[in-house]
Amino acid sequence: MALKTAEVALAPVKSFDGPNGKKPKRVLSPRNIMLYGTLFVAAAYYLLPLYVMIVTSLKGMPEIRMGNIFSPPMEITFEPWVKAWATACTGLNCDGLSRGFWNSVRITVPSVIASIAIASVNGYALANWRFKGSELFFSILVIGAFIPYQVMIYPIVIVLRELGIYGTLTGLIIVHSIFGMPILTLLFRNYFASLPQELFKAARIDGAGFWQIFLKIMVPMSLPIFVVAMILQVTGIWNDFLFGVVFTRPEYYPMTVQLNNIVNSVQGVKEYNVNMAATILTGLVPLVVYFVSGRLFVRGIAAGAVKG
Amino acid sequence: MTGQAKAGRPNQLLRNLNSKIASIPMILTAVVIFLGGTVWTVFYSFTNSKLLPRLSFVGFDQYKRLWAAPRWIVSIENLAVYGVLSLIFSLVIGFTLAALMDQKIRFENAFRTIFLYPFALSFIVTGLVWQWVLNPEFGVQSVVRSLGWTSFTFDPLYTPSIVIYGVLIAALWQGTGLVMCLMLAGLRGIDEDIWKASRVDGIPMWKTYLFIVIPMMRPVFITTLVIIASGIVKVYDLVVAQTSGGPGISSEVPAKYVYDYMFQAQNLGQGFAASTMMLITVAIIIIPWAYLEFGGGRKRA
C-alpha cells in the first residue's frame, strides 16, 4: 500500500531524533503543553461553579460579606446546610427544602416506573407486534417530542381539570409519563428490534403470547436498556421545573421549584450560604446518578437529548 | 415480520388485539395530547380568550397584538442572539474539546466526567450558581477589583444591554459537555486510516479537521444542531432562575412570555398566539432536517 511505503520512506529521517524507531513522542513537547494546558483551563472553568457553591455553603454570612467567593472558608460551618434542609422559608412555609425533596421523590419514583412500563410495552408492540396504523401513531409521537411544551400545556391543564386531578401529584405523574413516552418508546422499539428475531419466533412456536414473551423473554434480555431509560428519566424528572410549576400546587412543589422560590424570594436578607447549600442539595440526586452510572448516563442522555 | 404474522393464524385478531390494547396509552398520547393539544392551541390562538378559553374569534388580532408588544420583540431578539451564539459557541467549544480529548490523552475519563457533570444539573441549579458567580458585589467583578483593577466592570446580569450574554455563559457551561460527548463519538467513528493518510501527505492537523474530518462528520453535526436548536427555543428555566427576565424585561424569552400570559396575566389568547409562534419556529428547524434525514435519500429503513 502507498501508505506503508511512505511510512518506511520517512523512517530514516525520524531515526535521527533518538533511539526509538517509531514516532518519537516527547512528554513536554509544545504540543502537549498546549493540549493539556487547554484541557486544564477548560476543566477549571467547568469546576469553578461547583467549587464556589461548596465553599460558599460552608461559610458564615459575615465571612461572605468580607471576602470573595473564591476564597476557601476560614471557619467551616454546616449551619447553612441544616437551615437549607430544615428551616428555609418559601412563602408561608418554613420547613426548608425537605418538603420539596420528599415531593420530588414522590413524583420521580412513580413517574419513572410508569413511564418505563408504558414505553417498554409500546416499544415492544411496535417492534414485534405491528398493527395497522402503529407506525403512524409512533411517528406522531416522535414528532410530538419536538413540539415545544408550551403549545400543549394548556390543553393538558383542561384534561387534568376535567379528570379532577389538576394540581395533584397524580396529575404531574401522568404528565411526566406522557412526555417521557416519545423518547423512551423510541429507545425500547429500537432495542427490541435489534434482538434476534429467532428468539421471538421460537417463543411463538412454543405457544407463548404477547405478555408472556414480553415478561419472560424481552424484559430479562433488556436490563441494560431499562437501566439507561431509568437514568434518563430519574435525572430528567428530578430536574424538571416547568411541569412542576404548572401542574402542582405549592404544597406539592418539587424540589427544583421550591429551590427557585427560596433563592429568588424578594423579601428578607439574602442568605447566600443557605442558597448555595440548597442548590447543592437539589443537584445532589442527579449528580449521584451521574457519578454512579458513568457511561450508561452518557448513553441515556445521548438517547434522550432531544427531550431536554 | 408483519407479513409473517399474517400467515393465516386463526387467532391473529386476538394477538393484534393484545398489541392494540397495550398501545392505547401511546395512541391516546399521540392523538389526544400531541396532535389534539397542538391543534387546540393553534385554534384558540384566533380567539380572544382571557381568563378562560372561549370561542369568540378575532382573526389575527392576537398575533398583531403580540408583534406590537415590546416585550415580545425583546423576547424574540433575545432568542435570536442567544440562539445564534449558543449554536456557534457550543459547536465550536464542543468540537474543540472533543478534538483535544481525541488526542489519546491521559486522564480522559476524568476530563470527560468534569466536562459533562453540569449537564446532569437542572437549569434551575445552573442559573442559580451563575447568578452567584456573576454577582457584582461578591463574584467575578469584586474578585478582579480586589486584585487591584478597581475600575473593572463585569456585571452582565445587572446590565440590560448584555444580560443575555450572562445567560449564555451559564447555558454553555451546562450544555457544551453533551455536545463534546456527541462530537467525540463522531470523531471515534472516523477511520484511523484517514489520519495516517493525511499525516503521510503532510497535511497540517487543523486542515485535516477542517476539510476532511468535519465534512465526514456531517450527520453528527446535523443531529447535534437539531438537539441544540430545539433546546434553544424551549429555554425557560434558566432565565427564570438566573434573572427572572430582568433587569426590567431585558432578558425575557418567548417560552417565558407564554407561561406568564397563560398562568399569570390570565390572557390565554396571547399565550396561545405566542406558543403558536414557537411551534412555527420549531417547525422551520425540524422540517428541513426531517426531510434530509428521512425523506429524499431514504437512508434509514
TrEMBL record, chain B:
- What topology in the membrane does the UniProt record assign? Multi-pass membrane protein
Q: Report the subcellular localization.
A: Cell membrane
The entry's keywords: Cell membrane, Membrane, Transmembrane, Transmembrane helix, Transport
A family per Pfam: BPD_transp_1
Q: Per the record, GO CC terms?
A: plasma membrane
Q: Can you say what this protein is called?
A: Sugar ABC transporter permease
The record's principal subcellular location, in a coarse class, is: membrane
Q: Which residues cross the membrane?
A: 21-46, 79-101, 113-133, 162-187, 208-233, 272-292
